[in-house]
Amino acid sequence: MRAVLALLLAVLLGTAHAGDVTLAELPREAQDTLRLIAQNGPFPHKRDGVVFGNYEKRLPIMPRGHYREYTVATPGARNRGARRIVCGGAQPWPAATCYYTADHYRSFRTIRP
Asked: Which of 29, 54, 87, 113 is in Cβ range 3.0-4.6 Å of 98 for a Cys bridge?
């Protein structure tokens, strides 16, 4: 109950960060995307790897260009869907800090190996 209240408060304050998620807990499609990130592609979407602006400030504040976003396939979706992985830093995952969002940037979970 306390975790739910904390997440609700974070969403209302615009700082939603729902904690950690392990690689094994991610959907298979997110695991596939992380493998592509680790090997630096090739990526299936032309927008994969573009700068993520963090305009809502739901991730730690860093200089522009620090974060990059990648599409996580959504089965049955006709477009890119709402699922993304956002990574920060110059190194590929797992050296970089990466975050998973299933709700198009409204909340993030830190991905742990």
From this structure: 87
